[in-house]
Write a structure and sequence with these properties.
About 45% of the residues lie in helices and about 15% in strands. By secondary structure, it is an alpha/beta fold. The protein is globular.
Length: about 800
């Protein structure tokens, strides 16, 4: 019996929590039937297919528990692969286990060397040699009535955004050997994929799975295989209306219900219809665009199922409380000496671009050896792996670590910010204590030296007085005048010695006062940090009192104040977060010491600034087409800074500038002064008419971010002419089509909705066109517009 016909086991839990579903979890996989059907259809038709979507939409779960079982029914042999920047080991093969414990047996593989190794690495050359050894065929399409003699391989490159993120991270090292090898490895992988997609004689299919926000960066591959852009499935999170069905699905079938419902103190409780409805309603409020966050759903349901009284737990904690409990409990369960190194190590598992990073144990030891012992780091890594927050992989006797989901990234950043604040507090306390002790010792030493000097001087004076007295016996008349002179000098010397002692004491008192002031400042900082990290909202609000005044009085370092604010603005209590945001806004607007510190942090892209960006002042980035536009930009900057907004240093983009002045915004739902219309009015008041607005693409920027693009020199537009025809070649005139044109030139994506019919003037560049019409299949294609020329677009619209 082959692995394709083995009945899938019942997993140990109905909800996976933070981890994606596996192949063995197909019995609890639901609500994705149409996506699987569309994906299998595309794979059957095309050699190469794209599967992309936002982080957390469930791409890996769809592939593991939904797509692979269906592909086995269609006589495919799936291999799950990863790309990595390691020359000679560019391809990592991950075997697909059919057992709940992840051990053998595995599904059949065309690349496996044995049936016991869970994963291994191979070179691109070995990878291609293995594929070239497969029997050739005239094509790869499956005949409906002819049985296959040879099963067809499908190569599934999971998390293919690593083709960009991991390689860019390695290549940032400049001219090092590692950077050069990463560039060579990327080029080899690209050539291999292009060759496989173009080779129609090999019975091979390729599926690339990646995050949607890396679609543009994969243009290096699409330039050689442009048809891939038409062969895709864009995966979105399930709609909130499906949440209740997803929650209840593991308890609907009898065999699953008997496995998952355990009436016992340690949990394993059924999530009732009523509870499923309450969970769905609260998750719906957190959703964007009516779409559910699958990571949040799985974590919340896992915590409720493990509880002996899920209804009471949900009533007490709610969704937010359960999420925080799940993540914080994972680290809080560590022994106290492992919590700091665990948070530090998690920080290294995030790239500078905010994505997951695969890091070797050697690199982690090197980065944190100055802060923690090697034994302590290794124990922290073991604890992180056991908690399921981090996965461990062994590649040629080297240990590699990776966080299990990007859903953890914001939480890790918050924990790291709090950790930095505590470290800075301890350093301040230690430095203040050392300085105070040093000042005390120096003052005592100075006082002792002055006392000895005064005593020595007095002894010399007494000795001189005796000598004068004896000489006076021999020559009284001669020495009367000399004695008087010496006496006057003695009095003056005594007065001078006393003055020096007084000055020395004043200096010692001054240094002691400075030390006391430093200790007072350290005590204030310690008190503020203790209160802002407490559980009571009243304590947190007290920590924020007079914070800006203390900075201006130089009793708190402004960067320490930023650390305190970075914790407060992310607090779940709206009163606390609103108060912190208000302090930041007022400080930036008044341009005081705290405001200057925040602007400096924002310009330097520090971690604290990134933490505060979502709740701090709005940020504006001004893009110039040429240097002559700086005077206009200065007027706009002045108007924005009067409102208390952050304006980053100007960036000159040259030919990358748009054809018209544009305000690009990431907060279309903001109201009041930060609404896109209000900012647009402000631009027109400062610079004059001629400005338009458009939203930034999904995932392009954080909330409260605006980009101000000055137009490049006027270039003659091109004329785009549409001609719609049906399958018989007749013109379609009675249907109103929805037309969307996306500018994809120079990596700048701008979308324009055009009315159906007629001619349109567009700036020169490369565009992507999407056309939809009721009752017709949509059309998606790439085209170019040349300056001053007509572009005839003949579109054949096929009916559904």
């Amino acid at each position: 019996m082959t692995t394709a016909t083995i009945a899938p086991p019942i997993p140990e839990s109905p909800f996976r929590g933070i981890e994606p579903l596996r192949f063995v979890d197909q019995l609890i996989f639901t609500a994705r039937e149409s996506e699987i059907w569309n994906l299998v259809s595309s794979i059957t038709i095309h050699r190469g297919v794209l599967l992309y979507g936002d982080s957390g939409t469930g791409k890996s779960s769809l592939v593991n528990a939904g797509l692979i079982p269906r592909l086995l029914e269609e006589d495919y042999i799936p291999d799950r692969l990863r790309a990595q920047p390691r020359l000679g080991r560019e391809i990592k093969v991950e075997r697909i286990s059919t057992a709940v414990n992840g051990q053998p047996p595995y599904l059949d593989s065309i690349l496996a060397r044995d049936e016991t190794t869970p994963s291994f690495e191979i070179s691109v050359e070995e990878f291609l040699d293995r594929l070239q050894s497969l029997p050739k065929s005239a094509g790869t399409e499956r005949a409906a009535s002819v049985p296959l003699e040879v099963k067809r391989p499908i190569l599934i490159f999971d998390q293919f955004e690593e083709f960009i993120t991991l390689f860019e991270e390695a290549m940032r090292a400049g001219e090092t050997r590692e950077a050069q090898e990463a560039a060579q490895a990327q080029e080899k992988i690209q050539r291999a994929l292009v060759g496989l997609i173009r080779d129609q004689t090999l019975p091979v299919k390729i599926l690339l799975v990646f995050r949607e926000d890396y679609l543009a960066k994969l243009n290096v591959l699409f330039e050689h295989c442009p048809n891939l852009l038409d062969q895709y499935l864009r995966l979105r999170s399930p709609r909130v209306e499906e949440l209740k069905h997803i929650i209840r699905a593991p308890f609907e079938k009898k065999e699953l219900r008997e496995k998952f419902v355990k009436v016992q103190a340690e949990g394993g409780s059924e999530l009732s219809e009523e509870l499923a409805q309450r969970v769905s309603a609260e998750l719906s409020k957190r959703s964007e665009g009516g779409r559910a966050n699958l990571s949040e759903l799985q974590i919340v349901c896992r915590k409720l199922w493990e509880s002996s009284d899920p209804d009471a737990l949900f009533q007490q904690k709610g969704v937010q409380g359960l999420l925080e409990q799940y993540l914080s409990a994972s680290v809080q369960e560590f022994s106290e000496d492992l919590r700091d190194p665990a948070v530090a190590l998690l920080g290294h598992m995030i790239t500078s671009s905010g994505t997951r990073n695969i890091v070797s144990q050697d690199d982690l030891l090197k980065n944190e050896r100055a802060n923690f012992s090697e034994e302590r780091i290794e124990r922290a890594l073991e604890a992180l792996t056991n908690s399921k927050l981090v996965t461990l992989e062994v590649r040629r006797n080297v240990y590699f670590y990776e966080i299990v989901s990007e859903f953890l990234i914001p939480w890790i950043k918050e924990q790291e910010a709090a950790r930095r604040a505590l470290i800075e507090r301890r350093q301040l306390e230690e430095e203040a204590a050392k300085k105070a002790e040093q000042a005390r010792l120096e003052a005592e030493k100075k006082a002792e030296q002055d006392k000895l000097a005064a005593e020595l001087k007095l002894a010399r004076q007494q000795k001189r007085s005796i000598l004068i007295g004896s000489l006076a016996v021999l020559s009284l008349l001669m020495l009367l005048s000399i004695g008087g002179l010496l006496y006057a000098r003695q009095r003056r010397a005594a007065r001078l010695s006393a003055q020096q002692a007084i000055e020395a004491k004043l200096q010692a008192d001054k240094e002691a006062a400075t030390a006391r002031s430093d200790m007072e400042s350290a005590a204030i900082v310690a008190d503020k940090l203790t209160k802002v990290t407490s559980r009571a909202p009243a304590d947190k609000l007290e920590a924020l009192e007079n914070l800006d005044s203390l900075v201006n009085e130089e009793k708190i370092n402004p960067h320490i104040a930023l650390a305190i604010l970075s914790i407060a603005v992310r607090d779940t209590d709206e009163t606390v977060s609103d108060k912190a945001s208000e302090i930041i806004q007022q400080s930036v607007k008044s341009n005081d010491a705290l405001g200057q510190a925040f602007k400096g942090a924002a310009d330097s892209k520090t971690g604290l600034a990134q933490t505060l960006e979502t709740t701090g002042p709005a940020r504006f980035y001004i893009k110039l087409a040429n240097d002559e536009q700086r005077k206009r930009a200065d007027k706009i900057r002045e108007a924005l800074e009067e409102k208390g907004y952050i304006v980053a240093p100007y960036e000159q983009v040259g030919g990358g500038a748009p054809a018209i002045n544009k305000l690009r915004h990431s907060s279309p739902t903001e109201n009041g002064d930060l609404s896109p219309d209000a900012i647009l009015d402000l631009l027109k008041q400062a610079d004059g008419p001629g400005w338009t607005k458009e939203p930034l693409g999904t995932g392009k920027a954080r909330p409260r971010t605006f980009e101000i693009w000055f137009a490049r020199e006027v270039v003659s537009p091109g004329n785009l002419i549409f001609n719609f025809k049906d399958n018989e070649g007749d013109e379609i005139t009675n249907v109103k089509f929805s037309i969307l044109v996306t500018n994809i030139s120079s990596g700048i994506s701008s979308k324009t909705a055009l009315p159906s019919g007629g001619q349109y003037l567009l700036p020169p560049g490369k565009y992507r066109l999407t056309v939809r019409g009721e009752g017709y299949n949509f059309v998606d294609k790439v085209f170019s517009i040349n300056a001053g020329k007509d572009t005839q677009m003949d579109l054949t619209m096929s009916k559904k």
